[in-house]
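INFO worker-7 received task bundle
INFO bundle size: 2
INFO processing item 0
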Amino acid sequence: MRAPQTGNEAISPQHTRQATIVSALRLWRRLLTVRSTFPIAILCVVFGLSARAEDAENASQSSVQAKISYCKDCHGPSAQGYRGYFPIPRLAGQQPEYLENQLRAFIEHRRTNNIMFNVAHTLSPSVIAALAAEFSKFNPKPIGGAPQQLAAAGKKIFEDGAPDENIAACAACHGPDATGSGEIPRLAGQLYPYVISKLTNWDKERGRNPTIRDTSAIMSPVAHSLSKSQVEAVAAFVSDLK
């Protein structure tokens, strides 16, 4: 009779080799699974980040459109301005750089207007730039309504100035078509009562923060030099320009 096998004596070399091969196959299979899953995981992360970026961009565009709609409540459906008890300016076709500068002026208290400060100080720099770019593309007809009999005198001051009174031609800075450039605003199509109000109250509303440089200082001596009738004449002329 053969003695019974106990312990390691019961495992033959053949069984040992088979167990080793099985273990190696299982390990190899796990490695293949990890290697094939890793790039898939990377792709999932990349596409996930891309989707989030796209969602953020869409949200940003949606936010800008919402702000534009809000601005239209006061400045008109085409940003053409509003002739009311308090005239609200035309934003349509305005120089983007000028609009950006003026929104910052409200925030920095260089320009006084409590309503516009409350609106502007909630806007991020990117939204301000986007709003300015959008409004510059609008092109409605001027509202009009200015006294036509004043336009001829206003045209002469705008184009030639008043040399005897040391008043420079408006066209020298605002351009022959009054469309402005950079931080110099477009005057074409601007509301007649609004232009009168701004020129009359220039130093009361502009350049109010002495610690910050303000391009409005350029206009201060001009606004001071214009008489009431000259202000009205210039305002009448530019208000009908397209």
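INFO item 0 finished
INFO processing item 1
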Amino acid sequence: MSRNPERNDRKSGKKPAFGDRSAPRAGGPGGGAKGPSAGGPDRGGWNPNPKPKAFSDSAPRASRAHGRAGADADNFVWGRHPVIAALANPARKGMGRLLATADRAAELERDKLANGHRIEIIEVQALDRMLPPGAVHQGLAFKVQPLEGVALEDIAGDGGVIVMLDQLTDPQNVGAIFRSALAFGARGIVVQDRHSPALAGALAKASAGATERLPCARVTNLSRALETLADMGWRAVGLDGSAELTLEQALDDRPTVLVMGSEGDGIRRLVAEHCDTMARIPMPGGFESLNVSNAAAVALYEANRKQTS
């Protein structure tokens, strides 16, 4: 079978269609949310980032008078937790430009967190001008080249839970999903290369460093990726608010791919047809809407519980 050409130096099928899902979906991941996703143990360093690309649902940023083009944010990681996680990633060794205020530089040196990177001390105002408006950098920024992802087969070897994101493009949601996926022990995240943001900038900040620790496979076609995973013994469960089964009913202890769709459109028809079943998050409170990242956290908790029970 073909392997994703985007690799790093860390190593960690065909499914029949299930029902006619060509009709538009009324709900998303859990009864109103239109799509979702959420983590795992410390997996050390890996190469998560692809070629930088703009977020399709984000408005273009206006450049500052003394700043730089907003697209360059895809080459920056900022904030204390994301930067420290990037510095601890062996794949980052010897690369990047580490910028820190005097206080943060002293902290990095005291706690030996720079891991061989030279620290450039910079004033807060100068750092503000280098980053997008409103970036909460906490006195730390790391300018790096995007890193590559892992092959799909590298995160599918030993069972567990994998999260697949179908055209989720909001950096805050995707970052939060990475954070939850790492926390709940997912083996990795699968995204479609053409419809996913770079794992840097606001996304890396929202993930609190999880993008540096959780493997991400970027594939050309999600349906084919599900076929490959099915051949390897994985079962795909798609989240859909209009599904008959609840997550508790749909999940079991087999290797599971949680498929999350965008909040606007849910899971696309062809991707849904490659899922073994669809499931919803029951919402007895009567308010049938969850943010996609919240729905992902709920789904990951339930999937992890089934795996370990």
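INFO item 1 finished
INFO post-check item 1: The longest helix spans residues 292-308.
INFO post-check item 1: The chain has nine helices and eleven strands.
INFO worker-7 idle
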